[in-house]
Structures are given as C-alpha cells and as structure tokens.
C-alpha cells in the first residue's frame, strides 16, 4: 500500500506543469504609467490565437472534445462547446476584473466594460491548459496571458505590453472537478497578479 501511495504521489508531481508557482509579470515593453490617475479602465479580451492543451489551435481541441462527448452521449458535444465559449464572458472575465479592482481599490481604480474610458487593457489568452481532476489524480489548469495597454480611441497603438505565464487555476481543497471553475480561478489569479504589479511598480 505504501509503495502504491508513493507511485501515485510521483505521478501527481509529474502532472503539475513546471513553474506554476512562479507566475510573474515579464517581458515588459513600453510602459503602463499612463494608468496613473485613471479611475476607470476598459478591458477587452482576445482568444483568437490560443493554443489549448496538446493542440496549437483551439479549434482542433474543440473538435476533438465535441466528437468524444457526442460518442459518449449524442448532443452533449455541442452543449459542451457552447459552454466552453460562454464561460469566458460569464465567469472568466468577471473574475479577472473583480480581482484587479479589489487589489487596486486604494488607487480608486475600477476595471471592466467601460468603452468611454481613456485607456483599454487588451487581455489576450495565448494558451490554456484545462487540467483535470478525477479524484485520485489531478492536473491544475493554467493560462498564459499577454496584456497590452492602448488608448481606447486607437487600440492599434500599444503603449505598454507584458506577459504572465503559467497562471494556475485550482482549488486548494481539491474540489475543482469542473473545468470552468479551474479556469475561472486562473483568471482571478491573473487579475490579482497584474494588479499587484501595477500597485507595486507603476501606480
């Protein structure tokens, strides 16, 4: 029994992506100092060129999941695909903004859908690892983000850019069986990490 436990523990260690504990704001180009004094910041999300798991293209991952789920139970594949996209606006994006705003409240700044704000943060998800949790075995989800700052009136003109990689999404108690929940926690962590960077280094 002890040998079996050690084998399971070793497997679990192997399923955790490297450097999940070291997510930091990196690859900084330009500056985010334009955010000083801003009370409202618009946030715009991009998922167009996102890799997922073992797939370079999200579409290949989605097609595989649709096929697998429909083989298990007809019709569930399309339902899964709808939820895969809907979770972004319903769960991931609100969590990112909620944690950013929470950690920037002492600066009087709020983030969200503010199309009239002077500046916009463009939050692009470049990679998603959905992870899994089947009770005895689990792999945390994680995401890679590229965050850009632009004037809302000209979002092609980027004044600041950075990356945050391997942002983990998991529940400390181990109850993160739902993929959407794991990813929701990753976006929350991403918002917190970026806000703390702004608080410590910019604002």
Helical segment count: 4
Reading the helices and strands in chain order gives HEEEHHEEEEEEH
Could you tell me how far the N terminus lies from the C terminus, measured between alpha carbons in angstroms?
54 Å
Question: Gyration radius, to the nearest Å?
Answer: 18 Å
* Mean pLDDT across all amino acids: 86
Main sheet properties: 7 strands, mixed
Instruction: Enumerate the spans where pLDDT stays under 50 for 5 or more consecutive residues.
Output: 1-21, 172-176
Shape: elongated
Structural class: alpha/beta
Provide the helix percentage: 40-55%
- Count the beta strands: 9
Question: If you had to describe this structure to a student in words, what would you say it looks like?
Answer:
- The protein is an alpha/beta fold and 203 residues long.
- It has helices at 2-15, 58-72, 76-104, 179-202, and strands at 25-30, 40-46, 51-52, 110-112, 119-129, 132-133, 138-139, 141-151, 154-169.
- Helix 3 (76-104) packs parallel to helix 4.
